[in-house]
Design a protein that fits this description.
Butyryl-CoA Dehydrogenase, subunit A, domain 2, three-stranded mixed sheet, Butyryl-CoA Dehydrogenase, subunit A, domain 3, single chain, 50% helix, Butyryl-Coa Dehydrogenase, subunit A, domain 1, 3 domains, 11 helices, four-stranded antiparallel sheet
């Protein structure tokens, strides 16, 4: 009987063996790009509160923008390949993954699923190449978890639509060429494809953030913005349109959070093996080993959960509540891993010399956007009881 090899501390359950050759190639390609392009600069970008816009074209060259969509210059990749890409991007920084998620899973997905053929041909190829950046205008200053109460209004004026309102916490807003704006229309909530350069459209970047600093977050103000009839996403009617887009984005988050968690675990493990106190590496102390093992358990379980949900999605059998399950669990455990890794690093853990505090701060935003922990808890509560706590 052949003796099993000793487990790899970075892939303890040999999850790599569950991937196809093509999926591993995608993962390794994105990982190499993050290593070469993001990691050398990300601490500086985070500290300065910037994310270079030219990254979008590089991501487009890699085929990562709207990669899960088919046609119109999109790669048509599988759900697991997309998830692995999100994991590797967020292992670098949540801000880079957010750029890709908002571009592909929100803005491009909205046009791809709900838009006209003319809208798809006009926007999707350019967005897939990173030549045009999109954002997704749903959240408002007073309506985040309850988008049904939005105050943004769209009214008819002859053959045009006039849109008035304010959107808040909009990723990519300040660098966007086009915004998907959701508004209350006479027949319910409707989506519109709105170029950001039209008269009456003002963008104010949100400053002084302590989370997702390497990401552009903005307020969108629409004052009498006039768009033609064909700017409407004809096939989207009601709240189901934007919520379907959010479900796509949440799927990327449940993978991405495991990338941030992996970086924190790997950093803590390496530090514990080399940091000497009381004449020995701190990794030899029981309480530090307890922390490292707890991180490993949750990281491997969360990654396995993401992979399982990815396979379900590829088979067409993934319910939105199951996506909420993944987002709620994986972001929660990622935050726990980041906080525990910070403790292992001690005072070094609060500096940008190490990536842990950056990931920890970013995950606070990831925990909030695309549905807070409370919202996903109630979604799951409704799914298992059949009773809604929202009404």
């Amino acid at each position: 009987m052949t003796e099993a090899a000793a487990p790899d501390p970075l892939d303890f359950l040999v999850l790599d063996a569950l991937l196809s050759d093509e999926e591993r190639l995608t993962r390794d390609t994105v990982r190499a790009w993050v290593r070469d392009r993001v990691l050398p600069e990300i601490a500086r970008w985070f500290e300065a509160g910037i994310l270079p816009k030219e990254l979008a074209r590089e991501l487009g060259d890699l085929g990562l923008l709207g990669m899960q969509l088919t046609g119109y210059g999109c790669a048509g990749s599988g759900a697991v390949a997309y998830g692995l890409s999100c994991m590797e991007l967020e292992a670098g920084d949540s801000g880079v993954r957010s750029l890709v998620s908002v571009q592909g899973s929100l803005a491009m997905h909205a046009i791809h699923r709900w838009g006209s053929e003319a809208q798809k041909r006009e926007w999707l190829p350019q967005m897939a190449r990173g030549e045009r950046i999109g954002c997704f205008g749903l959240s408002e200053p007073d309506f985040g978890s309850n988008p049904a109460g939005m105050r943004t209004r769209a009214r008819r004026d002859g053959s045009d639509w006039i849109i008035d309102g304010t959107k808040m916490w909009i990723t990519n807003g300040g660098i966007a060429d086009v915004a998907i704006i959701w508004a209350q229309a006479p027949d319910g909530i409707r989506g519109f494809v709105v170029p950001t350069g039209v008269p009456g459209f003002t963008i104010n970047d949100i400053e002084r953030k302590l989370s997702l600093r390497a990401s552009v977050t903005s307020e969108l103000v629409l004052s009498g913005v006039r768009v033609p009839t064909d700017a409407m996403l004809e096939s989207a009617s009601g709240l189901s349109g934007p919520l379907a887009c959010l479900c796509e984005a949440r799927f990327g988050l449940l993978w991405g959070s495991m990338g941030a968690a992996r970086t924190c675990y790997e950093t803590a493990l390496q530090y514990a093996k080399t940091r000497v106190q009381f004449d020995r590496p701190i990794g030899g102390f029981q309480l530090i080993q307890q922390r490292l093992v707890a991180m490993l358990l949750e990281l491997q379980k969360g990654t396995l959960l993401a992979l399982h949900l990815g396979r379900m999605k590829e088979k067409g059998g993934l319910h939105p509540a199951q996506v909420s399950f993944g987002k709620l669990n994986n972001v929660r455990v990622a935050l726990d891993i980041a906080r525990s890794a910070r403790a292992v690093l001690g005072a070094s853990g609060v500096t940008l010399e190490y990536p842990v505090i950056r990931h920890m701060n970013n995950l606070e935003s990831v925990s909030t956007y695309e549905g807070t922990e409370e919202v996903h808890t109630l979604i799951l509560g409704q799914a298992i009881t059949g009773l809604s706590a929202f009404d």
